[in-house]
Amino acid sequence: MHALQWDTVVLGNADLVLGADKLKVAQKTADFPMLAGNVASTRGTWPKFPSFEIIENGCFRIGVFGLMTPAAPMWHEKLANDLAFLDILENAKEITQILREEQQVDLIIVLLHSGSNKKFGKQENLYAGLPNTNAAGWVADYVPGVDLVVSGHAHQTFPRRPIFHLNRYRAPLVAPGAFGNGWIEVH
Hints:
By secondary structure, this protein is α/β, with parallel strands linked by helices. Helices cover 27% and strands 22% of the residues. The chain has helices at residues 13-16, 20-29, 72-75, 79-82, 88-102, 122-128, 136-142, and strands at residues 9-10, 34-35, 39-41, 52-57, 60-68, 83-85, 107-113, 148-151, 157-158, 173-176. A 6-stranded mixed beta sheet has the order 4-5-7-8-10-9, covered by helices on one side. Strands 1-2 form a two-stranded parallel ribbon. The longest helix has 15 residues, at 88-102.
């Protein structure tokens, strides 16, 4: 991961399965922050994951924040014993306000380990007592101040061909695929 020279990453549900100890080591050895602003340790045994990173690029201050699907306990039940997963939409609104007002960034990029289909999984999550796992479309449509949403988790690539204007959602939303099978470049 160091060879890719990433500025930051967002954790996903599969990353949490590694366990607290391995993630603590990964955090110490990584030369980039691992974001998961809506995940909190309930027993103090897990590392604290930052909500956002500020990237200075020339004359621009770019706020990047990362949130992951709150439905992780549906697939990995043991996580519910140690971690609280907070609602993506509410956290996105709070962090966007902090980045705009307190940090005074020029652009906001949201990294979401969450699908973009606003309807898929909604009933299942309500039944399980969890917020919607596929919240990327909700963030793109209902969080003012967001300039770009990058969505993962669903393992889809969107758009699949070069496109000059992304107008499906209020804010542009892209999904780079999974396992290196997609590539998204935004200008």
